Amino acid sequence: MKVRTFPVLGSFITVFKANFKFRVGFVLFLAIMFFGSFSLFSPEYHQYLYYLPTNHPPSLESIDMILGTTSNGRSVFWSLTNAIINSMLIATVTSMVACHIGLILGLVAGVKGGITDRFIMFFTDAFIAIPGLPLTIMLVMILKPIINLVLIGLIISIISWPWSSRMIRSITLSLREKDFIVLAQLSGMSTLKVIMFEIFPHLLGFHLTNIINTMILTIGAEVGLAFLGLSILEMDTLGTMIYWIQRYGAMLHNLWWWVVPPVFILILLFLSLYLISAGLQEYLNPRLRGGR
Amino acid sequence: MRRPFLRYVTLRTLIFLATIFTAFTLTFLILKAMPTDIVKNMVARSMAVAGAALGNPEQIQKMYDMYYEMFGLKGSLMEQYIGFVRRFLTMDFGISILARPATVREIISYKLPWTVALLTFSTIIAWVVGNILGAVASLIEGKKLSKFLQALAITLYPIPYYVFALILTYVFAYLIPLFSLAPVRMPENIFSLEFLLTILRVMTLPALSIIIIGALGWWFLSSRALGLNILSEDFYWYGEIRGLPGAILLKKYLLKNIMMPQITALSLNLGTIFGGALLTEMLFNFPGLGLLLYQAVNAGDYPLVLGIVSLSIIGVAVASYILDLVYPLIDPRVRYR
Q1: ipTM of the complex
Q2: Long-range CB pairs of B193-196, under 8 A, 24+ apart, other chains included
Q3: Which residues does chain B have within 8 Å of residue A126's beta carbon, measured at their own beta carbons?
Q4: B272 in contact with A at a CB cutoff of 8 Å?
Q5: CATH of the domain at B149
Q6: Which chain B residues touch A169 with a CB distance below 8 Å?
Q7: pTM of the entire structure?
Q8: pLDDT digit string (tens) for chain A, length 292 residues
């Protein structure tokens, strides 16, 4: 066996080499992030309204104009690059928070069983039963005075953690019956050690794909919120861009250079994340590779 | 043999009731934390209309009291909560603030058929079509048709459905004006052709958006993945070697095993119907519950919000309750625990 100094990097390279979907998705994702990183160079005036001429089609005269301008005189290029980064920030917050809360609660419920399990599951079910979008709307309205990107991520976490917790619990339950877990317990391993070294490694694959799927859902949820005017409208996210497009009726005025980029990037971003998660899933579960 | 079952049912019923109750309480508390005070807005509005005639502070206070009592917002938080629990138990939420003098029950029963019809219909069609296509695709894995379907699904699945809906409205209501998004007036006679046409005109686009994205996206992908899983199982292989006819392999070996998890997902999906589909309804100007709920939340109409949300909570909880009770009957591998 080769000694690997960076096991994570090593397995990443293996997946990257082995799976086509993962490769395409990852490269696409990097490309989008690279495009988004241009926002680092965004000039101060990119947030000012009516600073640039309105409804100007794309032209090569300056970098502000390269994707045209909006109906409120802003550069589509700078909006878009900032939007990518901001949307990804929200997605990262949610996927990190929601998936880990779900992971911990699901693991504890699955391993402990009994009263703990019942209580956690009852709490989870109560959250699942409240319709998600209205719940987020109410929370955003409550927190409106202090809202920021991270907070939006946290609010969306509230509707996404119960699903992770349910899935993790059901996987843990099926693992718990396996012989090696029973053996580990019988040989006197502490519960924490069993969870860390015997159960968690089997959950890692699901956990990773879950994180990525949650990112997709979060970006979608933010667009949904923004659609209703409930995101941070003065900041650029993919959602708020679509909100302003709707608001100014850009589609009906044929301002294609304003409509197409955010929608296109949104679809590309979803596609790249989906391919990454599908690729990971195929790599981790050989049965999904098709054929026999 | 009988006692564990009884114990399971009792426990599950208790949890079911507790879940509904907790979800209701959480919604109430969150709603209470919202800054909008609809009664203040209402009083301000009627003051603006009536002008100086109502300028007397005592009278204004009276008006406040009357409204607060009418909508169950009088007294301390605990008293209000108990009042709403009573309303919840009788399923009578009183008068809606937004649409007074109509009661919450009247408005909901007016909007409910629309939402339920649209979502039940489109969810089930999407489910059937998606699962059949997915099973077929897993059977002919590697052929051109399967690859085409998969590519289509992978492109459609990540598209958020409101973007898709926007494209649909743009094409079919603006470029080719087949459907209109203008609000409709329903013909009086329920059994006329005109009635049917109106329904078709209102429902086709939203249904189409849900069906296409649902069927060719999630349902297709999941049923194909399940199918591939089963095809690689030993029992399927053995069945093939034994020379079982293709029809039996398809029906009893493949479809039956795909159906199990998919039925779970479908029933949970159907449980969420009562919350409405806010964005779809908004985009297609569809007179459904989701939009109503959104308006109610926006205005701070407590009785209406709690009425719709309770309905939705009960829907989801009942779906998972029934599922948990029925599942061991359908799938012998699952035991009551």
Answers
A1: 0.78
A2: none
A3: 18-19, 22-23, 26
A4: yes
A5: 1.10.3720.10
A6: none
A7: 0.82
A8: 444 455 667 777 877 877 888 899 999 999 999 998 888 887 777 777 777 777 777 777 777 777 778 778 788 888 899 999 999 999 999 999 999 999 999 988 888 878 888 889 888 888 888 888 888 888 888 888 888 889 999 999 998 898 889 888 888 887 877 788 888 888 888 888 888 888 888 888 888 888 998 998 899 888 888 888 888 888 888 889 888 888 887 777 778 888 888 888 988 898 899 889 888 877 776 655 544 3
Closest CA to B228 of A213, A205, A276, A285: A285
Let me know if residue B236 belongs to a domain.
yes
Contact B313 A274 (CB under 8 A): no
Residues B53 and B194 in one domain: no
Q: Tell me, yes or no, whether B321 and B219 share the same domain.
A: yes
Report yes or no: B141 at the A interface, CB cutoff 8 Å.
yes
What are the DSSP calls for B182-242, one per residue? S-----S-TTSHHHHHHHHHHHHHHHHHHHHHIIIIIIHHHHHHHHHHHHTSHHHHHHHHT
Residues B185 and B326 placed together within one structural domain of the fold? yes
Of the residues A174, A222, A256, A287, the best mutation for testing chain B's interface (the one with the most B CB atoms within 10 Å of its CB) is A287
Which chain B positions have a beta carbon within 8 Å of A223's beta carbon? 160, 162-163
User: What number of C-beta contacts closer than 8 Å exist between A and B?
Assistant: 123
Residue B191's domain spans which residues?
104-330
A247 in reach of chain B (CB within 8 A) = no
Tokens encoding A217: 């859902």
Cα–Cα distances (Å) from B144 to A275, A289, B149, B321, in that order, read 20, 17, 9, 42
